Amino acid sequence: MKTMLLTMSATVALLANSEELYKNCAGCHGEHGELSAMGQSKIITAQESNLTVKQLTAYKEGELNQYGLGNIMLLQLSKLSPEEIKELAIYIENMDKNSSSE
Ligand code: HEC
User: Fold this and answer.
1) Are 32 and 99 in contact (CB under 8 A)?
2) 27-65: buried (b, 16+ CB within 10 Å) or exposed (e) per residue?
3) Who's near 31: CB < 8 A, 6+ residues apart?
4) What pLDDT is recorded for position 27?
5) Whether residue 2 has pLDDT greater than 70
């Protein structure tokens, strides 16, 4: 229980940064993850964060290429640290494709 509370407050602190980070993704995946990137990817809104971390880490390592466009994701992730990848994944998990940003 204590761990859960700690995790939750850490998540809140990270949200501002992950919102910034996600701006780099919105061009292809949509402001709320509601788009299929380049007509290929799945819709990532609310995708479970463990899966997202796994996918992003693999893209970064050049080990994931689901639709032949893995190199595009590799470029997006080359500058992100494991911590930032985790923040982004949590942000994505909490996204609602119907919500407006303002
Ligand atoms: C230039 C366009 C572009 C940008 C910017 C981009 N992506 Fe992607 N993304 C793609 C494409 C294309 C794929 C599919 C790649 C493949 O072939 O596996 C993808 C795949 C994904 C997947 C896996 C979805 C699935 O279908 O399983 C996730 C998660 C993801 N991107 C998250 C992100 C995040 C987070 C960012 C920002 C750091 C980002 N993307 C930035 C184009 C983009």
Assistant:
1) yes
2) ebbbbbbebebeeebeebbebebeebbebbbbbbeeeee
3) 101
4) 97
5) no
- Ligand 1 centroid, distance to 29 Cα (angstroms): 7
- For residues 53 and 85, the answer to whether their CB atoms sit within 8 Å is yes
- Cα separation, 65 vs 59, whole angstroms: 7
Pocket of ligand 1 (CB under 6 A): 24-25, 27-29, 37-38, 40-42, 44, 52, 55-56, 64-70, 72-73, 76, 88
Amino acid residing at 26: A
CA of 59 to the centre of ligand 1 (A): 9
